[in-house]
Amino acid sequence: LARGVEAPDLAGRHVVVSAGGTREPLDPVRYLGNRSSGKQGYALARTAAARGARVTLVEANTGMPDPAGVDVVHVGTAVQLREAVLKAAADADAVVMAAAVADFRPATYAEGKIKKKDGVEAPVVTLVRNPDILAEISADRARPGQVIVGFAAETDDVLANGRDKLRRKGCDLLVVNEVGENRTFGAEVNEAVVLSADGGETPVPHGPKEALADTVWDLVVPRLA
Ligand code: CTP
Ligand code: CA
């Protein structure tokens, strides 16, 4: 752990963390995916367990072994991730959506491998929108006082985009990362600002993903019902 805690301040609490990146299948051999490693979500799960929480980790395509002392649910697609998160969130005190959820999925799944055909140009893939899980669980809380945390990877005006997203999603906290080449994806370290719905802004200096995870839990604990 990046930092010890004096008291197990999440003891008696159930927290749900989603981690990794969803994959949306096109045919039996292909999918649309993203570059999320899942490391930040795993750090959140490990630190919550170390602080005494019962942890449900909803994992999508990370390839990492299950952390000790954590209940892990393995999923593939955004639709599966939504189902697992909604189920686990029913009795959760806090939900942290660290997973990169595909915004779109192919409108159809080809049962057989899509083949090249002589004289036919490349096929057009039609996409449809996936459900917005964070917006849904924030608008329709499974429990009064449940604390909900989102993540956002932004470019350009990172803070303004983050404020906007926090409002749109309706969550309590939003961890905003600046992304670009060689930043965040797959790295062991992270740098972020945590925005809160009550106007707060907590900068987290460049450091291990455990340190950011502990800062998230430090901000969640006083907000718990
Ligand atoms: N998220 C979600 N369901 C989706 C997409 C995103 O729950 N279908 C969650 C992510 O887990 C993350 C937060 O929403 O915690 C922000 O994701 P992001 O992709 O930044 O937000 P979007 O609303 O999809 O905005 P953008 O158009 O910038 O991708
Ligand atoms: Ca998105």
Automatic annotation (TrEMBL):
<keyword id="KW-0460">Magnesium</keyword>
<dbReference type="GO" id="GO:0004633">
    <property type="term" value="F:phosphopantothenoylcysteine decarboxylase activity"/>
</dbReference>
<feature type="binding site">
    <location>
        <position position="113"/>
    </location>
    <ligand>
        <name>CTP</name>
    </ligand>
</feature>
<comment type="pathway">
    <text>Cofactor biosynthesis; coenzyme A biosynthesis; CoA from (R)-pantothenate: step 2/5.</text>
</comment>
<feature type="binding site">
    <location>
        <begin position="131"/>
        <end position="134"/>
    </location>
    <ligand>
        <name>CTP</name>
    </ligand>
</feature>
<keyword id="KW-0511">Multifunctional enzyme</keyword>
<comment type="similarity">
    <text>In the C-terminal section; belongs to the PPC synthetase family.</text>
</comment>
<feature type="binding site">
    <location>
        <position position="103"/>
    </location>
    <ligand>
        <name>CTP</name>
    </ligand>
</feature>
<comment type="similarity">
    <text>In the N-terminal section; belongs to the HFCD (homo-oligomeric flavin containing Cys decarboxylase) superfamily.</text>
</comment>
<comment type="pathway">
    <text>Cofactor biosynthesis; coenzyme A biosynthesis; CoA from (R)-pantothenate: step 3/5.</text>
</comment>
<keyword id="KW-0436">Ligase</keyword>
<keyword id="KW-0456">Lyase</keyword>
<comment type="function">
    <text>Catalyzes two steps in the biosynthesis of coenzyme A. In the first step cysteine is conjugated to 4'-phosphopantothenate to form 4-phosphopantothenoylcysteine, in the latter compound is decarboxylated to form 4'-phosphopantotheine.</text>
</comment>
<feature type="region of interest" description="Phosphopantothenate--cysteine ligase">
    <location>
        <begin position="15"/>
        <end position="225"/>
    </location>
</feature>
<feature type="binding site">
    <location>
        <position position="165"/>
    </location>
    <ligand>
        <name>CTP</name>
    </ligand>
</feature>
<keyword id="KW-0285">Flavoprotein</keyword>
<keyword id="KW-0479">Metal-binding</keyword>
<feature type="binding site">
    <location>
        <position position="169"/>
    </location>
    <ligand>
        <name>CTP</name>
    </ligand>
</feature>
<protein>
    <recommendedName>
        <fullName>Coenzyme A biosynthesis bifunctional protein CoaBC</fullName>
        <ecNumber>4.1.1.36</ecNumber>
        <ecNumber>6.3.2.5</ecNumber>
    </recommendedName>
</protein>
<keyword id="KW-0210">Decarboxylase</keyword>
<feature type="binding site">
    <location>
        <position position="151"/>
    </location>
    <ligand>
        <name>CTP</name>
    </ligand>
</feature>
<comment type="function">
    <text>Catalyzes two sequential steps in the biosynthesis of coenzyme A. In the first step cysteine is conjugated to 4'-phosphopantothenate to form 4-phosphopantothenoylcysteine. In the second step the latter compound is decarboxylated to form 4'-phosphopantotheine.</text>
</comment>
<feature type="domain" description="DNA/pantothenate metabolism flavoprotein C-terminal">
    <location>
        <begin position="10"/>
        <end position="220"/>
    </location>
</feature>
<dbReference type="GO" id="GO:0004632">
    <property type="term" value="F:phosphopantothenate--cysteine ligase activity"/>
</dbReference>
<keyword id="KW-0288">FMN</keyword>
